[in-house]
Fold this protein.
Amino acid sequence: MDMGAFWDALGVRERGLLVKSGRRRSFRRGDRLCREGDRSTTVLVLLTGHVRILTLAPDGREVVVGVRGAGDVVGDIAAVDHRPRSATVEALDELQVLEFSGSRFFMLCQQESRIACAMLVVLAGRLRALGRQWLDLSSGTAQRRVAALLLQLAVQYGVRHGDDIEIVTPATQAGLAMTAAISRESWARVTRDLRQRGVISTGRRRVTVHRPGELRRLAQ
């Protein structure tokens, strides 16, 4: 099983320490692990499944700003700065996690340099992704935004089958449209056009990219 940047950056000893120190919990699809504005400081390391990160837009809509998968860590910022949660975390499928109190996780980072370094890797990756996502998704046509998001998902979740890249999408069509900052109708129109041109094919919670070069060109 492929794991996220946090887990991948740890050694066997540190992984064992986290497993021993954390409380294993399960969540169902649709469960909210934390809510924006909460004062909780719980930190979760995802063992299986995916979550989406939601934040409130000025008009009151919830907007998807990210997706995390197995091996990623969520809730870490509140454990460090003790401020209200900056986002809501919602399970996209069945989850198995390791749960830590904020103080316990912070102590582990202080005591174990490799865990602290893994967190630096995670934070650096998030900063890079945020900058790239802002550039890709905050400007341009609906077609450009859809192409940019599909490329991002292909990198994160894509599995190659010959020349094709198969993506099990971590959100519904409506959720993906929100992430791309376009309407659901615009998302459907653009993906229909991409299907007709043979760039992609789609199924239930699944997209297969047949012409990644063309998708990359459309995202520029």
The CA atoms of residues 194 and 200 lie 6 Å apart. The mean pLDDT is 83.
